[in-house]
Fold this sequence. Notes:
The protein has helices at 2-41, 50-154, 161-193, 199-205. The protein is mainly α and 206 residues long.
Amino acid sequence: GTLNGKQEGATGKNTESKFVNVLGGAAAIACLLVCLFYVVNFSGGISSSTTRWSEFGGYLSGVLLPVISFLTLAAILRTIYLQREMIKLQDETFKAQATQSNALADDYRQARLDARKTMLLNNLDRTINTCIRDIERLEFARNEAAKSIILLNAGGGLASDELLMNLEQLKADVKFIEGKKNKLESLSYLIAVMEQSSIEELQENF
Length: 206
C-alpha cells in the first residue's frame, strides 16, 4: 500500500510537471510567433517613436491576451479538477479509516465478549466439577450406609430408624445435586452455543 501510494504520488508529480511545461511552452511559442509575425510583416527596425511602440503594445495585447486568457482558463480548470480529485481522495481515505476504526471496535467488543464468555464457562465447569465430587462423596456415604443395613439384616439385627433416615437423606441429596449438575451442564452448553451481541446480553442470558 505504501509503495503504491509513492508510485501514484510520483506519477501525479510527473503529470503536473508536464502540464506546467506544456502551458509554459505554449505561452513562449505564442509570444515568439506573435513577435515573428510582426517582424515579418512590419519591417523597418526598432523605432524611436512612442506612437509606434504604443501600436506595438496594442498589437501584442490584442493578440496575446486571448491566448494568455485561454491558458489561464486551462490552468484554473486543471486546478479545479485536482481539487475535486483531492477531495474525493480525502473522502475515500476518511471512509477507509472509519471502516477500519469500526472493524477495530468490533474486534475489541468481540474480544471482551469472548473473554467474559470464557470466564463464565470456566466458572460453570468448576461448579459442575464440585457437584460431581459432592455426588461421589454422597454416593460413597450412601453405599456405606446401605452396606451397614445389609450386614445388620444378615446378622439378624434391625437397622435403626436414624440409619434408615440417613440413607434416605443421602439418596435425596444425591438426586438434588444431580439435578443441579444437569441444569448447570445445560446452561454451560447454552452459553457456549448461543450468539450474544454484547456483554450485557450474555450476562442476562447467564
